């Protein structure tokens, strides 16, 4: 047979059929045995566990540096926030604290007059309060017949709510203010009450906060200034809300305030 008549050697397929050839025997090698079901179950559980770990890590990072959820337990901010509101709080805005290092990230901006703020209560830092910031470092504040005066100018506060009080507290609850009065410690004729106090000066690196529900709020009038190191963030919006009712077992499902969901906080 001439060289031209010899059949051309066939080229092998680009993709094998799964059975490798045995060069010694010229026959395809046996396919590996299928893995037992138990192996597949263990592998699936391992993959699931890895996904859960990643999800938990992302949750912790978001909670530490970006946003955190808070629930409103009292009526001190009624008119703006209600008992049973659940808030998402922007922790990055004032500089989120780095866990374990006792350091804070750079702030996006400083707390501003009129901000609704979340902070650690100076009397017990395990507790978080939500109030409105009404006094900046260096401000001179006083209240006359319930009207807030800042640096000599009466403040327009449309968000303030009032209620009828049986008794206006005064006396020892406000004794702390004596050291910050404009006419010096002690103050001549200083007899403060909830709606009449000051004038006092906010010290550096501190803030003065009040609840919008002025007649039912435990705030700076009673326990003093908030150090800037205790500021934790500013609420963004209400992501869930219900009207608590101790007489109903599933009040969190049956008494949802649908109209408040997604409300921005000002």
TrEMBL record:
Subcellular localization(s) per the UniProt record: Membrane
Q: What class of enzyme is it?
A: hydrolase
Q: How does it sit in the membrane?
A: Single-pass type II membrane protein
Q: What is its main location?
A: membrane
Q: Where is the Peptidase S26 domain?
A: 45-239
Q: Name one GO molecular function term.
A: signal peptidase activity
Q: Which GO terms describe its cellular component?
A: membrane
EC numbers: 3.4.21.89
Q: Which domain of life is it from?
A: Bacteria
Q: By its UniProt entry, which InterPro entries does this protein fall under? A: LexA/Signal_pep-like_sf, Pept_S26A_signal_pept_1, Pept_S26A_signal_pept_1_CS, Pept_S26A_signal_pept_1_Lys-AS, Peptidase_S26
The cross-references to SUPFAM superfamilies, in alphabetical order and at most eight, read: LexA/Signal peptidase
Query: Has the keyword Chloroplast been applied to this entry?
Result: no
Keywords recorded for this protein, A-Z: Hydrolase, Protease
* Ranges of Low complexity composition bias in the record: 16-29
Signal sequence bounds: none
Give the residue ranges for region: Disordered: 1-33
- The catalytic site is made up of 76, 131
- A biological process from GO: signal peptide processing
Reaction(s) this enzyme catalyzes, per UniProt: Cleavage of hydrophobic, N-terminal signal or leader sequences from secreted and periplasmic proteins
Q: Which protein family is it in? A: Belongs to the peptidase S26 family.
PANTHER family per UniProt: CHLOROPLAST PROCESSING PEPTIDASE, SIGNAL PEPTIDASE I
Protein name as it appears in the record: Signal peptidase I
What species is this protein from? Pseudogemmatithrix spongiicola
The opening ranks of the lineage are: Bacteria, Pseudomonadati, Gemmatimonadota, Gemmatimonadia, Gemmatimonadales
The gene is: lepB
């Amino acid at each position: 047979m001439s060289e031209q008549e010899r059949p051309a050697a066939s080229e092998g397929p680009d993709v094998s059929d799964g059975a490798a050839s045995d060069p010694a025997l010229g026959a395809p090698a046996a396919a590996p045995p299928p893995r037992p079901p138990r192996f597949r179950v263990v592998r699936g559980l391992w993959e699931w566990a890895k996904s859960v770990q990643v999800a938990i890590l992302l949750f912790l990072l978001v909670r530490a540096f970006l946003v955190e959820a808070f629930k409103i337990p009292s009526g001190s901010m009624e008119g703006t926030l209600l008992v049973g509101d659940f808030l998402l709080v922007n922790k990055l805005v004032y500089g989120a604290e780095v866990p374990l290092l006792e350091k804070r990230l750079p702030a996006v901006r400083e707390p501003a007059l009129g901000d609704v703020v979340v902070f650690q209560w100076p009397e017990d830092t395990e507790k978080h309060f939500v109030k409105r910031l009404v006094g900046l470092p260096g401000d001179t504040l006083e209240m006359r017949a319930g009207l807030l005066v800042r640096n000599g100018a009466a403040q327009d506060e449309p968000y303030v709510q009032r209620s009828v009080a049986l008794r206006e507290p005064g006396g020892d609850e406000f004794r702390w203010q004596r050291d910050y009065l404009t006419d010096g410690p002690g103050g001549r004729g200083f007899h403060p009450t909830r709606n009449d106090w000051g004038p006092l000066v906010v010290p550096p690196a501190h803030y003065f906060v009040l609840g919008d529900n002025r007649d039912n709020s435990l705030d700076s009038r009673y326990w003093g200034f908030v150090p800037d190191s205790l500021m934790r963030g500013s609420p963004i919006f209400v992501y869930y809300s219900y009207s608590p009712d101790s007489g109903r077992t599933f009040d969190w499902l049956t008494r949802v305030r649908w109209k408040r969901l997604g409300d921005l906080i000002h």
